[in-house]
Design goal:
This protein folds into two domains: about 50 residues; about 130 residues, Ctag/Cox11 (Ctag/Cox11 (Pfam 04442), Sandwich). Helix content is about 25%, strand content about 35%. It has a five-stranded mixed β-sheet with strand order 1-7-9-5-3, with no helix packed on it. The protein has a five-stranded mixed β-sheet with strand order 4-2-10-6-8, with no helix packed on it.
Amino acid sequence: MTERDKQLRQRRASRRDLVIAFACGSIVATMVGASFASVPLYSWFCRTTGFGGTTQVAKAAPKQISSRTITVRFDSNVSAGLPWSFEPERRTIDVKLGEVVTVYYKVINEAARVTVGQAGYNVSPPTTGIYFEKINCFCFTQQTMKPGETRDMAVVFYVDPKLAKDSEQAGTNMITLSYTFYPVREPEQPVAASTEPEKSGHI
């Protein structure tokens, strides 16, 4: 093999290594980007499809009410670390599909200090999430409770009449709306800047 052939082979090998390195780098970058995008994409997917029992957000009441009635059961939970009592005003209610309903949950801060919480939620069976429409809900914002404070929190919702047209929901007679309040860590208060004038080193 001549010296020229050796040089050509080395150049080809170098080009091949560069192509492989570039391809690997592109794959890694794509995977990293996908990992960062996965959370908002998953959240959007759940809100859009009702996957995992994620409820929908409605801006107005439906235009029709179905004759079909369904029972909605209300569940309440409090995560460890949040000293709250959290109960629905009633455990079940019978509603017609398309009927707008308002129910209340009573929350009591049993601590001798200010506490902050926010509710997570879902419905079961999970396949009914796409039909459960909330118009207003306390779960959309953080709740700050004073020591010993009692508060009635409302949720306004309806079950979409389209559920009656879904053959997979023909045997669905009950939907459970479940809330869990989780503690929210209060942000640290910034240290106020001193208002006193700086002392001069001169007398």
